[in-house]
Amino acid sequence: MVLRERFELSRLAALVPKTSVSAIPPPEHMFIILSESIKIKKYFTNSVFKLNSITMQNIELHWGTPIIRDNIIFDSHDELEKAAIEYSGRTNDDQAFFNPKHNIEQDDRLVDLKQYVLEFSLENVKKLNEGFWAHEINVEFADLWSWSSTDYYNPYHSHPNCSWSFIYMIDPGDPERDGYNGNTLLYSPMPWGSYADPGIAFMERTYMQWHRLNKGDIILFPSYVRHSAKYNGTVPRTLIAGNLKFS
């Protein structure tokens, strides 16, 4: 069983230190073939990633983490943005994780987005589990929320009691591109950090991955992946995010 998809392995897609994932070539210029052993049969074809295929051909990287991205802008985008701002509470409230007066998941303005997220996640999760799970798979939202703020910091964390998480960017705002600002940072689940020497430089230099999410971008990742985000700008950075459970 071999998969050839638009997956970005977090330990591979950031091989160049401090490289923003948004700068990585589009899918037609890159692909990773995953097998049951996650054996690398072909690497990136773009010149940015110059690896010697002769020395790599017998090396296998195991326990890869799939990071899946796509882009879609709905006809109802403006209404979706209004809902995200409304349920976020106050635009500049950086604690607007939950608005007790409303339930965003039940709002009809999110129908298209919710349907897309469920179909998109189910399609990819089924492919990832081919050969491992022979039964039918169903998906549902564990929770759903929105953020809309000109100044906030969401520190290093992961999401419990769910298997996959997603972020859908409605409006990226106007961050000054000073590196971290306006990015979503994903951190490798590998336990690097207690010791370092040149023998594990490949782990150290791919430990953190920067994702610049633009209008309509969605990123789907396993919920065990720790991540953080920071934003400061004059226009609110508005997004809808959530967690998924499969059964």
Q: How would you describe this structure to a colleague?
A:
By secondary structure, this protein is of the alpha+beta class. The chain has four helices and ten strands; from the N terminus they run E-E-E-H-E-H-H-E-E-E-H-E-E-E. It has helices spanning 53-56, 77-87, 111-128, 201-204; strands at residues 3-4, 7-9, 33-34, 66-71, 139-157, 164-171, 184-187, 208-211, 217-222, 227-246. The strands form two sheets. Strands 2, 4, 5, 6, 7, 8, 9 and 10 form an eight-stranded antiparallel beta sheet that branches. The radius of gyration is 19 Å and the shape is globular.
Structure in a nutshell:
The chain is 15% helix and 30% strand. It is an alpha+beta fold.
**How much of the polypeptide forms β-strand, as a percent range?**
25-35%
- Report the sheet with the most strands, covering strand number, pairing sense and barrel closure: 8 strands, antiparallel
Named CATH topology: Jelly Rolls
Cα end-to-end separation: 23 Å
CATH superfamily caption: q2cbj1_9rhob like domain
Q: Please give the share of residues in helix.
A: 10-25%
Q: Which CATH class is shown?
A: Mainly Beta
The count of β-strands is 10
* Structural class by secondary-structure content: alpha+beta
User: What general form does the structure show?
Assistant: globular
What is the residue-averaged pLDDT? 75
Total helical elements: 4
Give helix and strand order, one letter per element, not per position. Answer: EEEHEHHEEEHEEE
